[in-house]
Each structure stands twice: as structure tokens, then as C-alpha cells.
Amino acid sequence: MARTILMVLTTIMAWTASAGQVALPVSQAFSISSGESWTLSMKLAEGEYIRGQVSADRPFTALVADAEGTPVRQLTSPGASEAFIHFSAPRQGKYELVLKAAYEVSGQLDLARVESRQPDESPQPELLSARVRDAQEQLDQSMAEDDVWRQLTDGGTPLVERPEQVPEAGLAPDERLVTFLWRGARDRVLLFGAPGYEHDPLYRLGDSNLWYRSYRLPADTRMSYQLAPDVPWVKRTARDQRVAIMATRQQDPANPRSWSPEGVEDIYNTLSILELENAPSAALTEGERELPAPRRFRLYSERLGNTRDVDILVSEGLEPVPGAVVPLAIFFDGHDYQSKVPTPRILDNLIRAGRIPPVMAVFVSNPSRKARTTELPCNADFADFMVEELLPFVERQTGLAFTGEQTLLAGASFGGLAAACVAYHHSEHFGLVLSQSGSFWWSPQGDDRPEWLNARYAQSPRLPIRFYLSAGRFETDFGESGILNATRQLDQILTLKGYDVHMDEFSAGHDYFHWRATLGLGLEHLLGPLTSR
């Protein structure tokens, strides 16, 4: 039987004048018996924003449901033992936070209402799109908004216009004018995802409920995005205001092309996608052939004091002869590199095409989100764990042997930084580094020098490491220098030091939808035959 705790986040007065004055944080331990659920009921005003976290000792499922019990938003990915709650009520009423588990689970819930503030002034509009200008003229001529919206979105969104269609926009031949659209919002709509890092606002079209924003984008752009209407205005730090976009970001309802990275298909977990005509091919991610499933292990680390999932995959065609030396590819953020990036499928397609040899693949996951942020950014203890605990564990489980020359480390963001950091500490064991949008802007807390790892490579003798680096052309605003510039700097340093390094730049942002399409390029460069490079 489900256990229910009733929490009223808003009082009768809070529905009216005193709505911004009530804040009732909840800190509640919970336990769930096998196959049962735990429910927290809430009354929320329209637009009310709640934020919190659920942590447990075993995986669970968390979701928000409406008064009828219909799921509104799933909060966990498969196999997760923690969930971060960001939810803004789309309408006034009763909601339920529901936790479910297949096994007995104990954990902690922390949840609070976030105080709101008055919205900022709306930005001034820019009308570059010929189609948006036509829509404005139709509205000025009193055409019904329904009809204007129907015509504007008839071919789906975003709108894509070529140079000859918008000559006044000054597009180069290899550029397109891309316009994102939304209908219906009280005071603002933000774009979550590339090409803007700071969640660019859309502009209201006149006095209508239509919103738009146009960008000049290269014709090889590949990206995913969401739109966030009526993001709460919060009385907290600038970072809290930025994080508030998580409460309402959702798929673009007028875009027929979408992607659900975790297989969860509510509007909040579904991303809309844009692929212009010259975007990198994602053919390596496709295929219907049934693949062997990786073997999952739980590995406890004495050095780090935690336990994580480690998945081991023996590629088809790899002869598991005891003691044989075989290529090894290790992927950080292991869960993501099997779901958001279908790495087993990519490896299989490359191997079957003869573009790389059969490899042993190992997917190293994070014990928690907090552990990820402390272990992956150049943590010497984590680097030692990789050599002293992970590699011996893989050798014991497989009976195979590995050499640094044929052992690859791969990851994205902090994972890309970790690949280069671990190799820096132990190049005798890890001689191949594949970094997708690596966070090379990073430096230790208290150290005001940016690009800490770049400086280490510049100051040290050349190590026996080969590199494949990639970054998105839209990744210019994170950290002091941005991911793109910091990666370019590392590429230059490595080149000057005489390293074997290759860097690719793509018209994309910090985006798994892009990384999944381009991972194969790095794998082929580092693992493929020398004659193909």
C-alpha cells in the first residue's frame, strides 16, 4: 500500500496576494517496500516552481503526476538512484511526486518552493525571417492568430531559409537562416541548447502569442534543443535563475522530428532536433542486427571509497584467447555512452566494415552526479583507480591483456577532460585519447589559472599518447575561454610538442545528439589502420 504524505506548499492566501511569501521546505526520509510506491501530494499554483533532490540506496523511478494520476514528467533515467526535481506547474491544482521501486529502497527527499520575482523587460524584436515578416503583416491585417500560426508552421519548425529567400540577412552561400518558434506564453520563452549557451530568449511577435528568434547557422549544423515557456523568475543567484529553465524546458510541439535519449517520451524528456543538409551523417548509429549485451559488474574502489557499474563488451570477431593482447576502448559516463550514444552499435558497424579491428569495450559509469564532478576533472586518485583497480578487474574478468599503445580512453565534457587527464598521469597504460567537447577550460578550485591541463601538457616532456579532439563551433561561452577555444589551445600545444593529434570542429553545441553522430570519426582515427589516417 502506498504511503502518502500530504504537503501543502501553498495556503489559501498563497493563491492570491501572498503567493510569493510562502516557502515550506521539506526534508523527509522515506522507505519503499518491494513493488510498492511512495507518494507526496502537493497543491501548486499555476507557474509555481519547486526544486529538490531525491537520493536512494538503490535504483528507483520518480515522476510527477496530475490529480488523476496521469504521469506529467518522469524525473529519473533507467537505473538511476538519484533524481533532481525541477518542476513548474502548468496549471493550478493537485500534483503528486511518485517514487516506485522493484526492490526495497530507502532514501532522502529534499524539496522546496522557490520564491519568484517580477520579470525583466522583454527584449526588442529582430525581424530577419521573410516568413516571420509575412506573419507580422498578416496579424496587422487582422488575420486570425490560429490561421497565421497554421501557415507559419505548415512545414514544421524550425523555419529554414536559404540566402536567396532572405537576401537582406546577408547569408553566405553555406549559411541558412534558422528561426525557432513558439506559441503561447505569459512573459518569455527561452531556447535550451545550441547555438546560444545562455538560454537565448525568443521575441514576441507584436502583441500576439507568437514568439520567434532567428540565427545564421552553417549548413552542416546538427543539434538538439528544447523550448522553455514561462521559466520562473527566481529570487536567488544568477546560477539558480539559469537552472530554473529545467522546470519548463520541453520539446518543440511544431517540430515533427524528435529524440528521446533515455527512451522516456514525455514532453520534458523529449528533445527536438535540427539537421541541416550538410550535417554529419549518423549512419553508424543505425542498424537492426541483434548485438550481444555487455556484462554488467559492480566494482568497489578501495581508493575512491565507492561502487560503480562497469559494463564489459566483447566485440564480435574478437577471439578471447587467455593472455592475448587486444585493443581496449574505455568510455567514461558509461550509461550515457550506451544509451544517448549507441556505442556498441557504432563499434559493431565500424568493425563489420573493416574500419577498426575488433575491440574490448568497457563502460565506466559514475556512482553519482556528485562523484562525477569530483572524479572526472583531473582527480589523481581517480587516475590511480583506473590503473590499480579497473584495469586489473577487466583483466581478471576477461583473461585478456592490454597495452598502452592499444588502449583508448573516450568521453565527452568532463569525460573528455578525464580521458586526457588519466592518460597524462598514466600514459604507459593509456596511449589513445578521444575527447568530445572536453572541458579543457577547467582548473582546480582556488586556482585562478584557466586551462590547467593544457598547461601541464605544455610544461611536460612529450608522452606516448595520440589524440583525437573535437569541439562544437557554438561552444564558446563556458568557462573563461569556452570549450572551443580551450580545445583549440590544447591542439596547438600538442602540435608544437610533436604529438600525433587531430582536431575536428563541428557546427554543434554541447550535445549528445551531435556526439553520437561523430564518435565514429574519432574511433576510426585512433583505432583504424594507419593507412586510413
Q: Gap between N and C termini, in Å?
A: 62 Å
The strand line-up of the biggest sheet is: 18-19-21-20-22-23-24-25
Main β sheet profile? 8 strands, mixed
Q: Name the beta content range.
A: 25-35%
Structural class of the secondary elements? alpha+beta
Q: What shape does the CA trace take?
A: globular
Regions with pLDDT < 50 over 5+ consecutive residues?
A: 1-24
Number of helices: 10
- C-alpha Rg (nearest Å): 25 Å
**Total number of distinct structural domains:** 3
CATH topology of the largest domain: Rossmann fold
Average pLDDT value? 91
**Named CATH architecture of the largest domain:** 3-Layer(aba) Sandwich
Descriptive key words:
single chain, 533 residues, Immunoglobulin-like, Rossmann fold, 8-stranded mixed sheet, 5-stranded mixed sheet, 10 helices, 25 strands, 21% helix, 29% strand, globular
Structure commentary:
This protein is α+β, with helices and mostly antiparallel strands and 533 residues long. It has three domains: 111 residues, Jelly Rolls; 146 residues, Immunoglobulin-like; 231 residues, Alpha/Beta hydrolase fold, catalytic domain (Rossmann fold, 3-Layer(aba) Sandwich). Helix content is 21%, strand content 29%. The protein is built from ten helices and 25 strands. The strands form five sheets. An eight-stranded mixed β-sheet has the order 18-19-21-20-22-23-24-25, sandwiched between helices. A hairpin with a 4-residue loop joins strand 5 and strand 6. Helix 6 packs across helix 7. The chain starts with a strand and ends in a 6-residue tail after the last helix.
